[in-house]
Amino acid sequence: SPLITVLGAEVSADARRATIRVSVFPETEEAHALAYLRRKRRALREYAKTHGILKTLPFFDFATERQRKV
Questions:
Q1: How far apart are CA 32 and CA 47, in angstroms?
Q2: How far is Cα 54 from Cα 39, in angstroms, rounded to an integer?
């Protein structure tokens, strides 16, 4: 299984979208890791909702650093 590290987050100006930037090791597992993270979006939204960490609850997406550079 890959090692996934959260590198940061970018939130849109209207706070409706948040992109969580991650790195994946080994890089050959990026597609599987992103698929896993996207399957767990609901759990992240529930955590954010119950812990009140955000004023507006955004739609979460995930991207690797390699995707960001493209």
A1: 23
A2: 21
CA atoms within 13 A on the CB side of 20: 18
- The reported pTM is 0.84
The greatest distance separating any two alpha carbons of the chain, rounded to the nearest whole angstrom, comes to 36
Please tell me whether residue 54 adopts helix, strand or coil conformation. coil
CB neighbours (10 Å) of residue 19? 18
Cα distance between residue 34 and residue 32, in whole Å = 6
What is the per-residue pLDDT across 21-69, written as a single tens digit (0 to 9) for each?
999 999 999 999 999 999 999 999 999 889 876 778 999 999 998 776 5
